[in-house]
Amino acid sequence: MSWYKSAIGKVKNYASSFWYDDYDTSFDYLEEYGSFKKTDLDAYKKTHNLYKLASVRRAISNFVQIVTGKSIPVSFAQKSESCTDGKRVILSADVEDNFDVSVGLALHEGSHIVLSDFGMLKTLSDVRQRMDSNKRHMETTNKIAIETNQPVSFSDDKIEETYNNLINQDGKTYTEQLKEIYLKNGKIGKFGFPTDEVLDTLQGLTNWIEDRRIDHYIYTSAPGYRDYYVSMYDHYFNDKAVTKGVKSDEFTDETIESYMFRIINIMNENTDLNKLKGLRSIYRKLNLKGIDRLKSSADSLNMAIDIMTDILGYVSASQQQQGGGKGKGNSQSGEPQNDPFADVNETGDGENKDMGGASGNANVTPSNANEGSEQSGNANGNTNTKDAPLSKSALEQLIKKFQKQKDFLNGNVKKKKITKAENQKLDNITESGTELVRVGNDYVNEDGERIGKGVDCIVVKKLTKDVLESDDFPFTSKSWRDEGLATPYADEVKRGVMLGTLLGKKLQIRSESRDTIFNRLKKGKIDGRLVASLGYDNENVFYTKEVDQYKKANLHISIDYSGSMSGDKIRRTIVSTVAIVKACQMARNINVQVSIRSTESGGRSLPYVALVYDSRRDTFKHFCYVMSVCNVTNTTPEGLCFEAILKQLIPSTNDTDSYFLNFSDGQPTYSINSGDDSIHYSGNAAAKHTRRQVKKMQGNGLHILSYFITERSRNFETTSDWQIFKECYGNDAKYVNVENMFEVAKSMNELFLKK
Length: 755
Hints:
Elements lengths: L2 H5 L21 H5 L4 H31 L5 E3 L12 E3 L7 H17 L2 H30 L8 H15 L2 H12 L11 H26 L4 H12 L2 H8 L8 H9 L14 H8 L10 H18 L2 H6 L69 H19 L9 H13 L2 E5 L15 E6 L4 H4 L21 H18 L5 E9 L3 E2 L15 E8 L2 E9 L7 H20 L2 E10 L7 E8 L5 H10 L8 H8 L10 E9 L5 E3 L6 E3 L1 H17 L2 E7 L11 H10 L3 E2 L6 H12 L3
Parallel strand pairs: 1-2, 4-10, 8-9, 8-11, 11-14, 14-15
Antiparallel strand pairs: 3-4, 5-7, 6-7, 9-10, 12-13
Helix pairs in contact: 3-4, 3-16, 4-8, 4-9, 5-6, 6-7, 7-13, 8-11, 8-13, 10-15, 18-19, 18-20, 18-24, 19-20, 21-22, 22-23
């Protein structure tokens, strides 16, 4: 059994199954959040899906870049968009419904962008348009001539002149080849021009062969992504309806349509090369096992012209005019569709070991492809045995599938669209690196029972201007005066900058170094002051210097921005945070990140963490502005937020000391009210979960300091908030007046100045 056959049918998304949990889309909103109002549920579902779509787009973009070696933009289809423009890969908004197929299609489009000559394909389309224009002109001229009783005869010379004109406009050698096939078969249409069916089929064949060439290249050069291609081709070319049609006696009359159906499905394991008189000869000419002999899109066109000429030789003039055959597949769709890359074993003597056209069906063998006598067939010269005809419903389904195949070849894949507003949100999500992180799967209640299935936490990795000013960002609000963002904490920021200058002088010691010289040694560097003593047999004229300095440091400040922090609590916290960031800026060897946490606004209120400042990329001016506009809101999913950002925290290394500074007013509180699967995050259970996340930080070498923010300066130790706070942070919990820079400096020095 081949690897292909063993893989098929095991899981819905086989290729992505080993990592797909991160992009799980089997989420039942009604089951999970059934107790909420429909309006709130719909709003949440829409937002939730956008985050999911952004994650999926990010994953697929990575795949496309890896496979093609190019940074090709990947976007979702919008109005009037479905196929690639030769510059972008376009995804359907329902990409998650069948992820592997979507990835295969994206890789397919991306590889075409890199390897196909879109200019040639466009020129081919332009030639056809000009040809159609000339055809209509000649038809009009002839009609007028008949009406005026002045018959006009369009000679071969006139037709030759028309084709030469096309060549001159186009300047491409393949136009000469087009002329050759059209003149050779001048009877196929009026005035020597081909019919629309011929034009459509030729264009389709060109695309199908080009697909074989491109997909074979990717299939062989990036074998790790084969399963995505298998999924794509199984979806479009190897499903049950198509397979039934291939096995049936439909599309066996000698017509252009029949040849088109049989050729683009020639890789189906049930292909019978005896179904049409010329199918075996065409199969040999295709030589899919050697498809890599075609080096360009022009080569694909040459092959298509060659095969189209053969088809026209097998089809009678009357049949060409009628266009159709059994299973009347409408031929008005344009280019042909893509097919699996696999090759068919023409002799039917076992599995084919070569990858013919890049397909997953590399090892399939046609059921009836024996060399047999080609002279013992039916009246059409076919050697196929008659199969039971398809039912009416099966035939209708087959015709629809055939049309879908042709649309695929044309690049006209049906893709679900997103709105302009949704696209803007997706761009904001992507630019800010926002993602959903599943947290709380191990959360247990006071009785030690696991509660719920966890919850998605929104993590904004980079606070951009668009995110900051968007309605979806929960920490800002518009000013009623000028419609800009309100700045309720501008004064606190100014005070923080002033106090930070004082604190910075205390922390500058971290950027200082101390040299200790040890002299009168027997080895090291020569001490110039002792050189003269060498004449007195003094050998101890060497010295060494030991430089003592602090390692680089990284500080992550996390601030509780829940509603309970309102008033003086958040004001004092902002002053202190700005002061610390300013001081670290002065110390020079300390990098700082600042994140704020709470829950999103609206019906669902997911945990929400935003990295609002990173000194490695953001300016201090930007940070001051953000701190002046952000306000507290909603609840306190403390440990859930910590769990979500664990991967964003920089661990301590041999070169860097890492610190985590937390501002909070005490008790974690958060709730998802979703029926039987509710999560109530509070009390000792939430404190223990938070404590586990703190220990994970410590396990990564982070030094922890937690400031307890309270409005009570006395007897705060007796409050339940302080007790819960101590349970969360243990010995790392401290109470200081965060507006008193002397107290802050003392605690920061205790943390930062430890060797």
